## 1
Amino acid sequence: MTLQANHISKSFDKHKALDDVTIQVPEQSIFGLLGPNGAGKTTLIRIINMIAVKDQGEILLNGKPMQPSDASQIGYLPEERGLYKKMKVGEQAVYLARLKGMSKHDATVKLKHWFGKFEMDSWWNRKVEELSKGMQQKVQFIVTVLHQPKLLIFDEPFSGFDPINVNLLKAEIINLKNEGSTIIFSTHNMASVEEICDQITLIHQSKNILSGEINDIKQRYKTQTYEVEYRSSKALMLPEGLCHIISTQPKNNHLVTHVKLLDNATSNLLLQHLIQQAEILKFQEVLPSLNDIFIREVSPK
Amino acid sequence: MNKILLIIQREYLTRVKKKSFIVMTIVGPVLMAAMIILPVFLASWSEATEKRIAVLDETGWFFEKFQDEDNIKFYHVFEGLEEEKNQALNVKGDLLLYIPLPELNIPVNAELFSSKQPGLNVTSYIKSIMKQTVENKKLLASGIDPEIIKSAKVDINLVSIKVDEGGIEKKSNTEVEVGLSIFAGIMIYFFIFMFGAQVLKGVIEEKSNRIVEVIISSVKPFQLMMGKIVGIALVGLTQFMLWIVLTLIIVGIVQVMFISGDSSTLEMMGTQSAMMGHVNDGGSQMNPMMMITETLGSVNFMVMTLSFIFYFLGGYLLYASLFAAIGGAVDNDADTQQFMLPVSIPLILAVAMSGVIINQPDSSLAFWMSMIPFTSPITMMMRIPFGVPVWEILLSMGLLVAGFIFSTWVAGKIYKTGILMYGKKISYGVIWKWLTAR
């Protein structure tokens, strides 16, 4: 399922929460929705979920305007999570699944399967309030994906999990993608974005300021910086007009130097100079991390 | 729709399975049954133990005046006070009535010594005998034959008779109606608040633990709100029905088990009050218990029960929707209080005015309060035992239905916007904006 949100705008009183935001989520991909706190991510997600009403714009699912009946095709894990504290885990999961349109029998069978997969069979008859926060979030994750929605929306899915469970969830999310789901994934955690997302959009101050495939974006933001690891007794001497050295640090028995090429220079030219001066162990272009890009775009200029 | 049924089912089942519900369901009927049974039980209990009273009469006025009752026996003693006190209380376990020589001519003081509480019927019996004796002596002293006075005494027994439209007459007794009226009004008030508060609590729970976001993505906010309101209404009805059924069962069982033989509860109560009537020298008064049952018969119980259910549901729907709107709008307890107060004022007012309503059930104040939907459930229930024209009841019911449809519509709008709004200071201005917004 593809999702397109075209020119979405939304205002609360005088505050413009979303200003002409467009995102395109291709079929069977993981799409990262990034942005600082208060940028408008949650509002956009709520509009896609039909919880909030947009002022302007259109939402297309597979090219057709979204209908209220499409709600059963969407699974949504909100950032602020909650379950009925006094209800039993299994009972509650069945209830939420049935609200999504599953039959009682189907829901029970599938839930048992997932509970088995996550090794939480024994939780079925326990009250939610007896579980730890992380355990509750696991239950909620299962409830979100249980009805096999074509479109999954996760708002900060990893917050509150230990590293083992984060990996478990990551694997499941990639699994769901491979089984055909389209996934929108909102987070501040750039490392996980780099790991699992195919495409991202960065929303800042209610506007879409950056979209595209992760590699394209990195290419766009690269700074002609190279990392050189070499064996040599003295520091490198490189011509002034070619580049300048950012830093040099020892590493084990070698040295590591970061070099920024000036305009018109090429990496081959740099290499020719380097080969004459030292034994090169490694030569690699340094691409900016998403974290760097995020900070660069978002921090006040 | 299917989903709203699911919500109703969950709201209903989770509440009915709660311990507090089960406890309330058991404690309620036990208390109500106790209110019915206890007086009878106590009466039969005290009847069983006979009281013997030693009379030490220094005046000699009361010799042979105290006649034995079923469970009160008198005998005269003549020694000194201390000896007789010891003898009666400690040796025989009886009571001692001491009538000392008066400072003036007329004995008006007496002392009753007992090791246990003597009981109201004993003291009032002694008092009435003494009063009668002294009065008779004084009359004789003035040269008047007590028999003349006795024959001149009359007892006025006022029976008010209600004539309904068909001209059928029914005896009625205001005291019984007042009791029923207050009971019905208070019950409505109690039910509306108890179950309305559950709606409020449920909405706040969903909002504060954010599960509402998950649910709203699969059902409409209005469905969630109505599902909750209807589910809790069913819980209320279930509780009400269980109370009635269980109360009857408990009363029935106790009657069979403890109150022996062929004497039914009502007969027991009848004899008990007949005894009191005799003590008070009531003469030819109608048996009060019979009066109560006869008056109860004049109140149409079918009408009472059906209108109770109707006004409970109507009043509940009206207030529960407003409570749901409050729960949806607010974020914290302080704000809840701010909005709860103005909403509950009409209810409290209706109860506070109950005295005025009961005194004059046909006044225009009573009429208007039983028409306005915010007060009508309580006020109308208070008026019904006194008899209300059918058109008034129907009009009031119609207005109540219109009232709760309107309040549900208003609440739906507030709830829809408020339920996903966090961290915003809610004022009446803001709510007005939500209401008028498209």
Note: The domain at 3-219 of chain A is CATH 3.40.50.300 (Rossmann fold).
## 2
Amino acid sequence: MKTKNIYTRITVIIIFSLLTAQLIYPQKKLQKSPGGEHGEMDFSINWKKYYTYEEWTGIMKELQNKYPGLCDIESIGQSRMGRGQLLLTITNKATGKHTDKTAMWVDGAIHGNEVNGITCSLYLAWYLLTRYDYDPYVNELVDRYTFYILPGLNVDANNSFVEYPNTPNNPRETYRPEDNDGDGLYDEDLTEDVDGDGELSEMYREDPEGELRLSADGRRFVDAEEGFEGLRFTRIGSEGFDNDGDGRINEDDIGGPDPNRNFPYGWNLDAGNPYPMSESETRNVFEFQLDHPNIFASFHYHNTGRLIMFQAPPPIRLSASQEEELSEQTEARLEEMRKTNIYAQLFARRVSDDYQHDMDVQTKIVTEGAYILKNYRPVIGGLSGQAHAATYYMLGAYSYLIELWGSPVTIADTDNDGRLSDEEYMKWIDLDLAGDGWINPHRVIHPDLGEIWIGGSAKKHMQRTPPSRYIEMEAEKNARFVMYCASQFPRVKIDDIKVKAITANIYQVDVRVENESEYPTASDRSVQLKRYTPDVLSFEASDNITLVETSGKDLDDGRGRRFSYFTRQEPQTETQLSAGEKTEFRLKGKEKRVIRYFLAMEGKKGNATFTLSSKTGGSDEESIVIRVE
Amino acid sequence: MPRKSYKRIPVCTGIIIALVLVNFTINAQDAQIRFDRYHGYTGTSEYLKKVNTAYPGITELLTIGESTMGKPIYVLVISNMSKGTTIDRHIDLRNMRKENIQNVPPMKIHQGKPGHFISGSTHGNEYTGTEVCLYIIDKLVSGYGGDEDITSLVDSKAFYICPVINPDGVYNSVEKGIAQRNNSMEKDDDDDGKINEDGPDDIDGDGYITSFRYKDDDGMYIIDESDPRLMIRLGRDTKTDKQRYSVIREDIDNDKDGKRGEDPESGLDLNRNYPEGWWKDDGFAGGSGDYPLSAPETHAIAEFFTNYRNILMAQFYHTSGGFTYRPMGTAPHPRLNPTDVAVFDFIMGKKYLEIIGEEIPEAWLHPENMEQYKKELAETDADSYSKSRGYRLPRGWRVSYNEEDDERYGYGMATDWLYAQYGIYSITTELWNPEDDIPGFEIPDDENRRVAVDKALLKYQDEEYNGDLFVNWKAYTHPELGEGETGGWKSQYARNNAFPGEPLINVCEKHWQFELFRAKLLPEIIIRDIKPRIIYSGSTNEGTVKRNDSEFSVEKGKGKGIYHIVEISATIENTGALATNLADGEELPGNRQDVVWLVAERDNIEFIEGQPFISLGSLGGTKKIPGVRNSPSHKEVKWIIAIKENTPLKIVASSLKGGTVYKEIKFK
């Protein structure tokens, strides 16, 4: 209970009362020191391994079983081959239903082979649940918000990638049959582990005219110099049999459309065929998202390349010279900004006033993302039927596609030329990974091709998915970025109330409301989509107080309201006349807004209550007492 | 029950023949159909099952999905199930991945034949097409074995007939009498926490949901003087001295929220839910639903077309008007390839106008003079699209795109989608034009043509239907609107649908004739002139060649037996009227070029020249397309192979939309 006395010119006493909707639940095992365990030992998971479908869904079920008050598990639908797409819903059930709370969506591995996305999303779930009792930051997030976490999206291909021999790039798509080579047959010539060593490598044949030879250490196939006298080779292709006898190998591999070109926004037939949301895996996800309008932001894990791809508002079309000018301005400004913050971000995209706030908020968020994820680079994401385009453009949720991992250039680039040569890569394998990670060339008898060589490539988890020792390192910082974003979900409050007597019985009451977070209570896009609920300040008073109704207009139109990273203008407090008992507005990120009421009071004493309510940002209530002395 | 192919009857003996014949006869009688009443969703489903039982050798009943309310969406396949082949029956796969992924179902026999899709009732209240579908089914199954044309079509082609795309809409419109264009949706339209709680009602309890008329000085209707059953809608600014009325659907405010019918079962317009042209240019939704193909019914249709890529013709029946929309509505003329336009207009359109008795544009009769027509049209005030073609589209065969004002028509329509994204000759026929479909139908003089037609229809139903299609007005006190009367057309009929009996049969017969004509245009692949020539024969061994400068030494391996070196040529020809693909059809993802395989036991064949399969592009048709240079309808292919003696060898030609055929090769 907070109480304030404010004396105006004619002595008005205002009593504030605090009413927070938030129930505070005490933590059971609050950890006071950052050293020591924070709950990891309550449910320990080995993060040095990629899990099969049975294994990762098993972990999810056990987590739910262990933390039933914080976590639900459900299947949002089935894959083509009948696997359930298991989703964890994480929130403290005691503080409200998950659908009533602002929510974060996280999915991993829409591309079958990008299974470090499964690890990252599973890690986030585990982090939130195991630390809930120990870590005040996590505790508050789980009390206030909902996390929908779908570790494996493309479950059939995800499982295949982990459980069976595969190249780092396959299988990527969902399992809809497709005729890649136009021979009339569907998915009839897949890759196979010819030599049975558990890895899918490259096939070569000895060829006196060949352009390749073995490297000096016998581990790689390299270009043969002119006049080279020893064994020469020609590359055949990746490991496999000619299943259909058409003379070609692996030419009609498993799977159909790219599921991340299958979403409706910016969809095109060539990349997203046969039709938008044709795959049960993608359709189940989008249907779930449509059914849960409380989803405020979304993360989608991919690999590779260490990128934070975020959705930005549609650009204003510029002429070539305007583009150039904007790009120069941006660079100059960025150079200036980076003098004080090496993680500063700025993007050469001009957007309309209706969308400027989204542009600014996203820029701010990914700036912090670059800090948290260190060597990850923020870029504006594409449309073309991608999941994160649909979440922003169709649902109005802020969306981020994370390209995880990448070549170990930062640790193995010994000549510091910014790229990793074969020699540097091999050295990394030999010294950092103790030699585990390479398939040496060896002779094999192939049923279709006779005697060939197989090998000379890295193993499966060496390129797009990190070797096991790096899994947790990557997952941990990515979990922190998701949590940072959730921590910036809107939070509204009534910041202050000022009363001024205009005459002895007419008062001007200024109620200042505030959104303390970076995110607005609704994105610009959701406003454009009309898919949002406005924030409301409502007014109730004792019978002797009447509200003088006004037009409800803004009082400071055009006074630099836009906050822009270009101009560095700070947001100014807007003042808006109240139109009546309910005043509707949208609070932007970090915005304060004054709602001005004119009240007429008869008698010596009256009271009024102001209730602020935001669908996404919570609610607050303050009461005042006016007493004429 | 086990499927019995009655094509196999001749090979059966004695008693079995008699039993099967008796059984067959009973079933065939059982599957007879009359068109003196509407069958609705329930009757249609029963009929489809009966036909499938009676004709197991030439039909298959597919359930392609379920409506919102859980009603199956059926497609009846009509094709001889014991004739034909598919490509996967001929290619043996070996050394498959240990993972044993079973994601590719075996192809059905009819997927190896050119497909023709015919559907009704995308809009539940536009029901006539369902009956036309049933009529076509009846013609095909009962004509099989008797009529030569039909027998040949059912043997070599596959008909996919979906009488009801929108089961809930049809069930409500026809069986419950609540006209419902859209599908059903479990949606809280008015956001009051209740779902579908306020739809139309049979307020007078007479078993029909018709209309309620009441005196209202702001109303838009007056009562017709000559026939007081008839309500005449006034123009917006029309003045009148007569008593004005309002006319609403029979309805009360079920949930007492002050609004009537604000949360009915009716959901999405299914013909605005397809992907082509669904979006507006500004990046917001234009079509219906949260996203393209969001409705279970359209999703089922899309998945069906994705799995049955052999379909080249499609028809979506709507009502009414008695004309056909060919593509496109969401995009202007240049979006179509001129070759496709020529097929649509000069071949299909011309036939359609003949059938409905409309005058054929002169330019279509003499397409060779098109440059002259273009010049003539250039002098007129015709729109630019008509000018570029050389003709205006006639009333009976048109596009929904507004060419005069250069404006798109709607968003996300089935016909546009199948044309542009699947490479299909898809059309939408708006059935039912009383003037054409009721013999001797006379329209009285009236300045308001709509009223005149209504009067004539009323008179016709008085005389021929004993007045059964119209409920006469009777006094009713509405709990919210007060005194008035209930009555009007029973919603199944009104102006929407061909009246059962003679008018309906007329509609059915015309459109059966038109689809029969279209089916006969389908491509048909054959293999001819197979010429195998043995160049060399002899006993042989394995061998490897080693080179030392200009000296080649051969290391002889184990004996392989007698081998022939054979040169084989063959011609793959399309004997059908139309090409195996639309002009740009083979380029569309999911479609492909025609291919030909040479197949033998793998370990016994070596390809010396030519690959195991050869891509042919698309084979042209035999019908001359006016104004278009036909692509060649045949291609010669050639291989040289080494093959072990007595190894069976065959050629398999496979066109996605032109059919799959094979021939065994005999040589000595």
Note: DSSP finds 14 helices and 22 strands in chain B.
## 3
Amino acid sequence: MTMVTEKDINEQIAWAKINTDVLKSMENPRPAYWVTLAVCLAMVSTAVVAEYIQYTVGMGTANLNNPHMWDMYIAAFVFWIGMSHSGTLLSAILHLIHADWRKPIYRFAEAMTTFSLMTAGIFPMIHLGRVWNLYWVLPYVSDRGVWPNFRSPLVWDAFAITTYLTASMLFLFVGMIPDLAICRDNTTGWRKKLYTILSLGWVGSDQQWRNFRKIYLLMACFLIPLAVSVHSIVSADFAMSIMPGWHITTFPPYFVAGALYSGCAAIITLFILLRYFFRFEDYMTLPIMEKTAKLTFAIAMVWTYLNLIEFASVWYGHDIYNKELLIAKATGPYAWIFWTMIFCGSVLPFALAFKKLRRHMPTMFVVSLFLNLGMFFERWMIVAPTLSMSQEPHQWDIMYGSIVEWGIVFGSFGWFGMLFLIFVKIFPSVSMYEVKEMVFHRKRSAGEEDLARMTDHAKPVTQATGGEGA
Amino acid sequence: MSLDNILNHWSDYRKGSEEGGHHDYEHRWAMAINLDLCIGCNACSTACYAENNLAVVGKERFEKGQAMHWMRIERYWDQQELEHPEQGASFLPMMCQQCGAATCEPVCPVAATYHTPDGLNAQVYNRCIGSRYCSNNCPFRVRYFNFYSYYESAWPEPMEQQLNPDISVRDKGVMEKCTFCVQRIRTVKDKAFMEDRPVQDGEVVPACAQACPTSAIVFGDTMDEGSMVSKLWKKHQVERGVYQKTRHAKKNADLRGYRIFEDLNVDPSVMYLERVREDI
């Protein structure tokens, strides 16, 4: 690059200040934090009421009917699973390729992965007719020799999601251990007790750092294929069926691209929120926002490409059911949703191509929300129109969700927000040790002779970057 | 011991999951429905409600599409552009087609729907967890879900007395569908077994066939060469498991037999005989 680039982070920032800033964020956020948390709690209570009605009265309260056996619950399930993928992209993939700009923002992205998976995991339960028999999906050893049906993609889902959830939770936790030790050394009361247990006796010795690096890298490598496979398997829920609009070969990559897309948009949203709530202007800087926005733009184009491929393969495939369904999507009663999806998913991301807009936080906030709206519509456009217009013309129907269904889907956003906001209040949402690492390396490559000479003698980089506290 | 159970039956289990379905059928129950005889009177549907303890859901829920009619009469207008009496309705009785390669079976996560040695798609109510994937993957849309608990509303006292004791009343959260009146098949098979003789043709009569005033519905076993339904299938050159050409491709106007969605290759057990029109 010939052009002088802006610094991702001010490398003169002192390590002690990093610690203080992050620790302070866990103590006194801006009042807006509490307002948002209250809104989230209100949304969750809406969902609880709606679910109570649905559980006691029956699934019919969600307006589900014969052609539309699945609707927004499944769309929301796919949406939340999808959102989880970008956390893995930032924390694992970018870790492997040494893109160090991810360091200040990967922690909350990884938390987003875990919590959106927890949100997604609720939907298959909410939508089951007899949820109390949910465990029948798992292959437990039964005296009667009754097994789940291993041919069913729903069983694969159960495996894939629980594996991914476990792995991403462990990855989040392991990556946090050095930071938890810093927290332990700087807090009192119940927090101290909590961090003492969770930091697993971390003292920052060479041995510990060596093991830590190894296991962190190993887990990152383990997580990447999982992330890809999870959404491919979710797409198999549709692709394995024979329904028009579902039985499509390109679904796995299409779903993975869509997943990364909505996840990146969500990262931008949360980036802006956290930056404001916790006064993280020094860490979540504009250049990092720009890089995230560029990444989102690239993924948006991949998604658009795969979308066009899907349309083209349907169009030239000349399968009458598929083709009619595609035409009906674009021109029928759901056309407004279809075109909103195309606008939000393929046209709006071009806003990210402009530097001025990328650096304007309110614009980015609104744009990221609309990108995710488009992605939610995309999931809904996959699930519902197929059922509205399947092979059997007698059963063609149009259906919109009832207030119960909307309440639960609406509440899932509150549930996610609640978990996420509680997490960032209790745990450091900026990775302290990795920001120190980043500052150190930047400083060194910027030609800070003194420091370079010093570290040549005192060889272990690990120790220098470590969690020795303030 | 459960582990012993698994180890002992491992090969059976593997066989079942790899091949799917059965290759040594005892019976293959099938139907032939003559659309030329169907007058769209809905007697079959009513009989089905009575026989199979189907809940009457009420007007509001019916309009929402939550009805439980295992047997439904589909009405199509011959000439859409004309007004009512001249339109000329065609009727198509539609129920579970008991497909040989049923799409509902592989997708059920708990194997609540499976293929019996009788060639039926059995639905095990007690095993169903209500994921509703089977219904989504059914091209005929003939699977019905208990969106509500109907016991109180559909059969207020003393109407519960009219319930058929041979089959259960399903509660909310369970999928159900036409069984070809499996309870009647069971009774006849048991009787034949006690008398040490094969099941006779015409012995099993499902409720819909019994109620049909024009005898449009013929039910029987296609494994039995001499049965009425076998003869009809043979006469119209419709064979199981074989992709059927359309009537026009057969170049013979007398061959009226076809199976719905033949192009999906799901091997339905119901053959329809096309309606004869003067002008075509």
Note: Chain B has one domain: 24-273.
